[in-house]
Automatic annotation (TrEMBL):
It catalyses: GTP + H2O = GDP + phosphate + H(+). The gene is ftsY. It is a peripheral membrane protein. This is Signal recognition particle receptor FtsY. It comes from Anatilimnocola aggregata. Keywords: Cell membrane, Cytoplasm, GTP-binding, Hydrolase, Membrane, Nucleotide-binding, Receptor. InterPro entries: AAA+_ATPase, P-loop_NTPase, Signal_recog_particl_SRP54_hlx, SR_rcpt_FtsY, SRP/SRP_N, SRP54_GTPase_dom, SRP54_N_sf.
Length: 341
C-alpha cells in the first residue's frame, strides 16, 4: 500500500504516517540518543537475528579453533546480511590475522569484527551531517527510484525541521503523478509547511525553480524538493535531474546544497546498483537508506559505505514521521551485535 492510501483511511485506521505533533514538540518526546538506539535496534532486529543465530552456531561449543572451516563459516554468516563479498572478506581476514590457529571465545572474535566494521562504516572526512547554509534557505533535492520512500522521507525531514523551529517550503516536483502532489500537499498541511506545486505534467524544473524562489521570498530556512521516481537507465529523466539542478542554481547560485538519494533498504544489493547511476548524474551528497525495519539485509549499509564516496546521512526505521535517524556507525554496529557480547 502506498503512503497515499493511508490518507484515504479514517483517522482511527491510520497506523501511519502518524499525525505530526504540535509545532513545538514537548521536550519529553524529543528523541534521545537512547530512544534512537532502541528504535535502531528494533529496526535492525531481522538482520540481527539472522546474523546472531549463525554466529552463535559457530560457537556452539566453548572455545573454537580458528581454522579454514571456521573462517568460511564466519564469511557465510556475514555475507547473508547483504554487506557484500568485499566487506565480508575484510572482516574474515581481520579475524584470520588476529586468531588463526588459536582457540578463541566468541567475545574475542566479535570484538575484532565490531572494531573492523566500525572502521569500515566510519569514513572520516565525509560530511555526514546535513550541511546548512549560513544565510538564506538551505535547498535539499530528493531523488530515487519509484517507491523507495522519497515522499515519506521528505515528510520525516520536514517534521524534524519543524520540531527545530525552522520554516520549511516543500516543492512537489513529482509532476508525473497527481497522487504524489496530493500526498505532499496533505503532508505540508499537517506539518504547517508551505508547498509549491503545479498541474500534472508540468515541467518539474519549473516547480523546483518556483519552490526555491518561494523559499527565498518567505525567508524560509529550508526548501525540500520532491522528484518523480526514476531509473538510472532512463536517460531523459536523468537529464531532467540535471536541469532541475541548473534551475535551482539560477535562484541561489550554489543550490541545491544537498541532494539526497533515497534507497530502499529491502532491496539489499540492488540498492547498490540503484545508487551507482544516481550518484553521478544527480550529484548526490548523501544517502537515506529507508525501510531498514523491514529487512534482514541491513548489512547493505556496509556495502554502500564501502562502494560510495557519499555518506549515508539518515536511515528510515519505519513509516512514522519520527522514524528517521541520523546514521551513526557505532550505534549501528552495537545494534547489530546486541546480546551477543
Ligand atoms: N517500513 C518502512 N516503510 C517505509 C519507510 N519509508 C517509506 N516507507 C513506505 O514505503 C512506501 C513508499 O513510500 P513513498 O514515500 O510513497 O515512496 P516514493 O519514493 O515517494 O514513491 P513514488 O512517488 O512512487 O516514487 C510507503 O508505503 C511508505 O509508507 C521506512 O523507513 N520503513
Amino acid at each position: 500500500m502506498g503512503i497515499f492510501d493511508y490518507f484515504k483511511k479514517k483517522p482511527d485506521e491510520l497506523a501511519l504516517p502518524e499525525a505530526p505533533q504540535s509545532a513545538s514538540k514537548p521536550a519529553a518526546e524529543a528523541a534521545t540518543p537512547q530512544s534512537i538506539f532502541t528504535r535502531l535496534q528494533s529496526a535492525l532486529k531481522k538482520t540481527h537475528d539472522v546474523l546472531n543465530t549463525d554466529i552463535r552456531d559457530l560457537f556452539k561449543r566453548e572455545g573454537r579453533l580458528v581454522d579454514d572451516e571456521f573462517l568460511t563459516e564466519l564469511f557465510a554468516a556475514l555475507v547473508k546480511t547483504d554487506m557484500g563479498v568485499g566487506p565480508a572478506n575484510k572482516l574474515r581476514d581481520r579475524v584470520k590475522t588476529d586468531f588463526r590457529g588459536r582457540v578463541v571465545q566468541m567475545s574475542d572474535v566479535l570484538a575484532a569484527v565490531k572494531q573492523e566494521l566500525r572502521g569500515m562504516l566510519d569514513q572520516p572526512g565525509q560530511q555526514q551531517a546535513l550541511q546548512f547554509v549560513t544565510s538564506g534557505p538551505t535547498v535539499i533535492l530528493v531523488v530515487g527510484v519509484n517507491g523507495s520512500g522519497k515522499t515519506t522521507t521528505i515528510a520525516k525531514l520536514c517534521q524534524r525541521f519543524k520540531d527545530q523551529g525552522k520554516k520549511v517550503v516543500l516543492g512537489a516536483g513529482d509532476t508525473f503523478r497527481a497522487a504524489a502532489v496530493e500526498q505532499l500537499t496533505i503532508w505540508a498541511d499537517r506539518l504547517g509547511a508551505e508547498i509549491v506545486k503545479a498541474e500534472p505534467g508540468a515541467d518539474p524544473a519549473s516547480v523546483a525553480h518556483r519552490a526555491v524562489a518561494k523559499a527565498v521570498e518567505v525567508n524560509a530556512d529550508i526548501c525540500i524538493v520532491d522528484t518523480a521516481g526514476r531509473l538510472q537507465t532512463q536517460s531523459n529523466l536523468m537529464q531532467q535531474l540535471e536541469k532541475i539542478h541548473r534551475v535551482m542554481g539560477k535562484v541561489i547560485p550554489d543550490a541545491p546544497h544537498e541532494v539526497l538519494l533515497v534507497l530502499d533498504g529491502t532491496a539489499g544489493q540492488n540498492a547498490i546498483s540503484q545508487a551507482q547511476g544516481f550518484s553521478s548524474a544527480a550529484k548526490c551528497t548523501g544517502i537515506v537508506l529507508t525501510k531498514l525495519d523491514g529487512t534482514a539485509k541491513g548489512g547493505v549499509v556496509v556495502a554502500i559505505r564501502e562502494k560510495f564516496a557519499i555518506p549515508v546521512k539518515f536511515v528510515g526505521l519505519g513509516e512514522k514521521a519520527a522514524d528517521l535517524a541520523e546514521f551513526n556507525a557505532q550505534q549501528f554496529v552495537d545494534a547489530l551485535f546486541e546480546d551477543l557480547v
